[in-house]
Predict the structure of High-affinity zinc uptake system membrane protein ZnuB.
Amino acid sequence: MPDFLLYALLAGLGVTLVAGPLGALVVWRRMAYFGDTLAHSALLGVTFGLLLNINLNLAVALGCLLLALILVALQHNRFLATDTLLGILSHSTLALGLVMVSLFTNSRIDLLGYLFGDILSASAGDVVTIWVISVLVSVLLFLLWRPLLAITVHEDLARVEGVPVTAVRTALMLLMALVIAIAMKVVGVLLITALLIIPAATSRRLTHTPETMALGASLLGALSVLGGLAASFYWDSPAGPSIVLCATGLFVLSLLRRAEV
């Protein structure tokens, strides 16, 4: 296996390790639009990284974390409906990132790579960064799993039982921001939410408990990465979109299986 393909595979598997359980929570809590908003802000982080001449992965992570905190704060001051607010922030941050990249950066960058992923250019450093963050987020999700399930089932009841709802919800947003920051390399800004949602939605149709759904989502995500990279290698198709299409194919198969049953 060529080195670039091995690095791409390891990077993709590192993302799917944590995207599975996090995607399950996103599906249960109907937070897809939150994911889109955070993902679109990633390009703004790239711009600031280029302008300030700092590591782009760090800049993207800090940008996503900052927007996650802003979203949490705005949720407490509901001067607009949540979906309206997210729609405004999602598209405005993406547009601002695109404009700033074109106007204020001297270096030529591959915008398509940031928008749709550039997993085949993953380096050994990228792989290490992705796996370190994935393992860290996985450990934190494991520690917060019960409180996260509690607020997903019923926030008011969880609060009565002593669960710090605001802190747990904020932690979930911050963890999502970290995963989006590392997933941008794999599927790009425009497709990150698909990698979170589609495997989780597929697993939901095939499993019966929260834990098996989370595990199944990770396994289905890994299969999607394998299939997408194979398609990209043999047919020279773009890797990020190919991964998402493989995930979509698995979802369609899950629909057919349920129909047969």
In short: Residues 124-153 form the longest helix (30 residues).
